[in-house]
Amino acid sequence: MCNTQGGYLAACTGSRNNVAVLLMIPDAGLAELIASPVLIAQVWPGAVNDVMLLVHVLRMSGPSLAEVLALGLLTLLTPPVTGQVPPVELAYDMAVLRAVARSEDGKRVTEPHLRMADVFWLEVADIAVSGRSGLRMAG
Among 61, 65, 79, 105, which one is least packed by beta carbons within 10 Å? Predict the structure, then answer.
């Protein structure tokens, strides 16, 4: 189920304590790419299933993102040590989604890799396959 408001594409990804977790895609071109199997096939012909499954698992995940990770449906990549709040990087096979983790009130979650249960929104920055950015291709 998708909803566009304020320039965002939002899709429910499950619920946590009866509160929906949102997958938000602020870039319209990237949102269009992610929503279209045909466009995904044009951009990443060898990884269509990986990208589709990554997006599908996030949109249809169970009670929380933390549980999806605990079940091993997706892999949480270890962030580099930079001294800044890292983006969350989730992977399924060759597809990697990079997003800003946000709390229920929309604030950025510090140390999201250690506090996945606090993540209510994922503000998608990009999806890439083998380093090939969907944001650059959609732009």
Answer: 105
Cα distance between residue 12 and residue 61, in whole Å: 9
Q: What is the distance between the alpha carbons of residues 123 and 117, in angstroms, rounded to a whole number?
A: 16
Give the whole-number percent of the chain exceeding pLDDT 70.
81
pLDDT of residue 59: 77
Partners of 89 in the β-ladder: 98
**The pair of three-digit structure tokens given for residue 52, joined into one six-digit string:** 């589709």
Q: Is the pLDDT of residue 25 over 70?
A: yes
φ/ψ (deg, to 5) at 99: -150, 160
* One-letter amino acid for residue 130 of the chain: S
Q: Return the sign of the alpha-carbon dihedral for residues 97, 101, 102, 104.
A: positive
